[in-house]
Amino acid sequence: MKTILLKFAGPLQSWGTSSHFETRHTDFYPSKSAVIGLIAASLGYRRDEDEKIARLNELDFAVRIDQQGNLLRDFHIVQKYTAKGDSDRNYVTNRYYLEDAVFVVAISHGDSQFLNMILQALKSPYFQPFMGRRGLPLIADWIIGDTEVGALKSLELLEWQAATWFMKKHPNSLSLEMYVDSHLTDSIGSQLRQDRVESFSQKGRKFGFRYETRVIIRVNNPLQTRNTDHDIFKSIGD
Fold it and tell me: Nearest to residue 164, comparing CAs of 80, 70, 100, 218?
């Protein structure tokens, strides 16, 4: 089993799975459909290439919330015009974002050749990838790397990826939430999320449901962990 680890961090992100024109919501962590869309764009897939995109649903998916971030609401005043070019009316659209959030996404598959193809595409994308919306670019070091273990184990072994200022506010160790494909864990309890891609076509986007499970893990804070073996009095002579 091979796994690719990706870090999504930056001033703003948006991961909506249920949005309408006047209200664009965001989920509180990345959706599998958004990551599949990012991978498809990197591979150069077109929106109507449903068969190619469908295979990406086979990827095992897990996301770890390293830094929750804050919910931000923005609004745009949109002006509608008539066919003659006259002003018709104005209305407000609300758009929601996550600010200062950090997530780590793990994608894995039993076919290492398939994963290597995806990894190379992510490093040299055909279309520009972004974090949910076109105005939200990825950070330079968003590709953490790859491992030879599964998605869940990779996240369990990965050190905490939060920002330094955020780490300073927390103790030596803390609990992090992970949301993973339900078949990856024996944990009891799962929920449905509508982020299984059926079609990205502009003529009719379609998304199905998948089961995901919430898992809690403990991580160490590298800034608060100190080596207590040092003895300053050893430097004092007899």
Answer: 100
Q: Are 129 and 42 in contact (CB under 8 A)?
A: yes
- Is the overall model pTM greater than 0.85, yes or no? yes
Per 3-state DSSP, the chain is made up of helix, strand and coil in percentages (nearest 5) of 20, 40, 40
Q: Report the pLDDT value the prediction gives residue 228, as an integer from 0 to 100.
A: 53
Task: Evaluate if residue 203 carries a pLDDT over 90.
Answer: no
Give me the amino acid identity at 236: I
Q: Which residues of 162-186 are buried (b: 16+ CB within 10 A; e: fewer)?
A: beeebbeeeeeeeebebbbbbebbe
Report the alpha-carbon distance of residue 53 to residue 57 in Å, rounded: 7
User: Is 220:172 a contact under the CB 8 Å cutoff?
Assistant: yes
Query: 23-27, 76-80, 187-191: which has the minimum mean pLDDT?
Result: 76-80
pLDDT digits (tens, 9 = 90+) for 168-194: 998 888 999 999 999 999 988 899 999
| Mean pLDDT, residues 206-217 | 94
Collect all residues with Cβ–Cβ distance below 8 Å to 21 and sequence separation of at least 6. Answer: 93
Domains, the chain, ordered by start? 2-19+27-66+100-220 (3.30.70.2660)
CA dist list (Å): 77 to 12, 106, 162: 20, 38, 35
- Is the backbone of residue 10 left (phi > 0), alpha (psi -120 to 50) or beta? left
Please state, in angstroms and as integers, the Cα–Cα distance from residue 48 to each residue in 33, 38, 45, 76, 206, following that order: 15, 15, 8, 30, 11
Q: Quickly state the pLDDT bin for 85 (edges 50, 70, 90).
A: confident
Alpha carbons 178 and 191: distance in angstroms, whole number: 13
Q: Which residues is 103 bridged to in the sheet?
A: 8, 65
